[in-house]
Design goal:
Shape: globular
CATH topology of the largest domain: Transferase(Phosphotransferase), domain 1
Strand order of the largest sheet: 1-5-6-4-3-2
Number of helices: 8
Structural class: alpha+beta
Low-confidence stretches: none
Distance between the termini: 35 Å
Strand content: 15-25%
Largest sheet: 6 strands, antiparallel
Length: about 260
């Protein structure tokens, strides 16, 4: 057990400076730029050795997360594996430098992955800023990227626009940055493909005109007939409405709990 609050290096491709092992202090420091602060994960950018690196810290306290770590490893170790899966399949991936963990009774209750910072804008933000031919090119390229991922047997469980960076735009190069839930299968089922398509729609596609949505599906589905594309779009829209309703229910439950505590 790491009672002193420092992490231990579990995997590393480069030497890790000792001060980085005090992950909580580094993230809370004035030089850290926090990109995301959630119940389970915190993402921060810091300067290190003349470059920028990203620290993604996972809390593994909940029973379900402790069990998950027992069977599939800590969140940080899953990022390491996810990046390796993408790289082996020929897809751009962030360079993962190290996996750090704090353990109790042999199981991680905190973990942190150290990643080299990737320059770029998220695909949803960039898509909304573009019009005309630039938006069309981005739409087509992203559809083909997602299809190539699936055809390679890769399934990112959360491929919403905010989790994909556009490293360069001409031609578009996409870098998936949410890596702890990337899995590889012999065949990505339609249920999993549809889940990713719904995530894309809810994060990007709901702002698109009908012709843009159908253009995306044409390049994702390939040789599918026009009527088939429209049927798939109806299915995605229906599933998106279901997910929207689920989100609203969860949000109301959280608000009621907060009110009860107040």
């Amino acid at each position: 057990m790491c009672g002193d609050g420092t992490y231990r290096v579990r995997r590393s491709r480069v030497p890790i400076p000792p001060h980085l092992l005090a992950v909580e202090d580094v993230i809370a420091g004035s030089s850290a730029r926090v990109l995301k602060e959630g119940l389970r994960t915190t993402v921060a950018v810091i300067a290190q050795g003349g470059t920028e690196i990203v620290l993604k810290r996972f809390r593994e306290d909940a029973i379900v997360h402790r069990l998950e770590s027992l069977f599939v490893g800590s969140g940080a170790s899953r990022v390491w594996r996810g990046a390796a899966l993408l790289a082996r399949a020929g897809f751009p991936a962030p360079e993962v430098l190290a996996v750090l963990e704090r353990r109790r009774f042999g199981l991680p209750f905190r973990s942190c992955v150290v990643v080299r910072y990737v320059e770029g804008r998220t695909v949803d933000e960039l898509w909304r800023d573009r019009t005309g031919l630039a938006r069309r090119a981005l739409t087509v390229a992203f559809a083909r990227y997602l299809r190539r991922l699936h055809d390679a047997g890769l399934y990112p469980q959360d491929v919403r626009g905010a989790n994909v960076l556009v490293e360069t735009e001409d031609p578009p190069v996409f870098v998936l940055v949410d890596l702890d839930r990337v899995r590889r299968y012999r065949h990505v089922s339609w249920r999993r493909r549809r889940k990713n398509l719904v995530q894309v729609h809810r994060s990007v596609g709901r702002d698109a005109a009908l012709r843009e949505q159908l253009r995306f599906l044409r390049h994702y589905l390939g040789e599918a007939h026009r009527n088939e594309r429209r049927g798939v779009l109806r299915e995605i829209l229906e599933q998106s409405r279901v997910k929207d309703a689920e989100y609203q229910r969860r949000r109301r439950m959280v608000e009621r709990r907060r009110s009860a505590r107040a």
